[in-house]
Amino acid sequence: RISDLQGPGSKFPPLQNLTNLKEL
Asked: Distance (Å, rounded) from C-alpha 7 to C-alpha 20?
């Protein structure tokens, strides 16, 4: 979920974050 990726506890680095957003 986008909220999980943007949360303070996000474990995803910026590049991985973008990849996950594209998959949604």
From this structure: 14
- The overall pTM is greater than 0.70: no
Nearest Cα to Cα of residue 7 among 19, 17, 22, 24: 17
Helix, strand, coil shares of the chain as percentages rounded to 5?
60, 0, 40
pLDDT tens column, 1-24? 566 555 555 565 666 666 666 665
Residue 16: its H or E element:
helix 14-23
Run of H or E residues at 5: helix 2-6
